[in-house]
Amino acid sequence: MGADTAGRGVIRRAVAGQRRDVAVGSLLGAAHQTGEALVPVLIGLIVDRAVVRPDGGALALWLVVLAVVYAMLSYGFRFGARAGERAAEQAAHQLRLDVVRRVLAPHGGAEAGRPPGALVNVATEDARRVGALNMALTLGIAAVVGVIAGAVLLLRASVPLGLLVLIGAPVLMALGHYLARPLEHRSQAEQERAAHASGVAADLVAGVRVLKGLRAESAAVARYRSTSQASREANVRAARAAALQTGLMLTLTGAFIALVALVGGRLVLSGSIGLGALVSAVGLALFLPGPIAVLAWVGAELAKARASAARIADVLAAPGETTGGTTEPAAPSAGELRLHGLGHAGLHGIDLTVRPGEHLGIVVTDTAHAATLLHCLARRCDPDRGRVELDGTPVTELAPAALRSALLVAEHDAQLFDGTLLDNVTAAAPAGADPQPAMDAAAVDEVAATLPGGTSGRIGERGSSLSGGQRQRVALARALAADRSVLVVHDPTTAVDAATEVRIATGIRRARTGRTTVLVTSSPALLAATDRVVLIDGGTITAEAPHDDLVRDHPVYRTAVLT
Description:
Number of strands: 10
Largest sheet: 6 strands, mixed
Structural class: alpha/beta
Oligomer: single chain
Helix content: 55-70%
Shape: elongated
Number of helices: 20
Low-confidence stretches: none
Strand order of the largest sheet: 6-7-8-3-9-10
Strand content: 5-15%
């Protein structure tokens, strides 16, 4: 499906989901525009029936009618705009939810090739632009009614003037749509540049400590300056396109109204219409630029919305990292994990069975092979050969969300989130579960003691207020609190001191009693607390025994964990 077709699909869903508010807003807006068109007609009638031939009673009557029309158009504008704005905000909100759901979907893939800042831009500014189309549609429908009402009223006053408006207005609308095309392309480029600038800024802020440590501030500033300037230039080009489109439409509209006034003046001079009709015609000629300008604005908003909708559609339609899988795992899961002849990116013929409730250590001499193993276990990728099974069912047959409800792979670089320490620990915990055992096992009490407010203290974005070792402990506590049947943890204590590491090793063992636990690590303290250890060297399993036996008998293992 092309980006343009997918973008139109996003727009259709955004509008269809709010059709009731759009309909109400359009109806009330039409009432407002009709009232606006009636005002000059009523003033013309007052001139003819109560001013040219003075009549106090008629004047009072028509003034009451005029007041009623003003009340109607005021009510229509107020509540019509409210309905349109509600439709815009609701649609934008739903699109933001759709983007976030896709980013967080178990099968992944939406973030591939997109920095976090770019995804944020899609979920905020692009969603806002598409949602705003509902407001534009509401006002546009009302503007069309206003143009038609003005034309009909002009026809009643003068057929030539009415025909002129009926022919001229559609021509102006078509020109507005044609002039909006360059704006659509430049708006898309503007959003792409803005998203890239947001992504670079997010990367630089996340790595500010590293940049300062390397004294690379000047290079970072230069990189962001270049990206920001490109974004600014794209923004200026889009603004120029918008200004040109608006300016041309105002010029064309002004010329059109001047033509209407010229024809009307000639009709008055020829005696075809009277003074009241002249006043009405002039008033309608002054009224018509308003709805026509709204139609031009709607064209510009449609151009922006189409560009943003295509970007949203790209995210929503992004291919997943994994596909297939609909089976639900056994409940509760026994926790048996098996690898049959697994081969992928350097791993060869890995055959391994992790028994239910076992506490297993895995030492991998090549960090790339360790990453591959974790990706296969988490099903971030499927192996080229062999398979991974959970309780006898290949993980490729399990629904991604169901798989993650039974098996959790806690990677070494797991991120924390802005919020309290307790919020981070309980992010994936079952409802009503007590997080204290997990925090005790990960020695998080020491982390809480350093925060104002303890476990209720905020840790900053990505845990910026914590040290590396403290972040690791909070991430480990979160993984333990999730209480999955199978937990795979990768190097959870690389930044923790030796004494705390021993305490954590004992704590993990205690917290995971009766649950299958796999520790992919080279930490002697953690490995000493396991039932057995598997050594993967050169992409294959070369040894399997308790930690103490491997330290004593296997030189490669001894080198991997003791040096």
